[in-house]
Design brief:
This protein is mostly helical and 57 residues long. It contains two helices and no strands.
Length: 57
């Protein structure tokens, strides 16, 4: 825990890059969970996932 506070109080380029990578990983996980939830909901409702029923030219 002391190491975390040491990096937080004196951030280096490596620390900032690590924090950015962790943030990107969390955002990717949230996006995957949201996409999975949409696909599951659409499947339960009998819809075709990824299909647009709009007018085709």
């Amino acid at each position: 825990m002391a190491l975390v506070f040491a990096f937080w109080n004196h951030p280096t380029v490596l620390t900032i890059l690590l924090l950015v990578l962790v943030l990107l990983a969390v955002l990717a996980l949230v996006a995957l969970l949201a996409a999975s939830g949409r696909a599951t909901l659409a499947a339960e409702q009998g819809a075709v996932v990824g299909r647009d029923d709009g007018d085709q030219l």
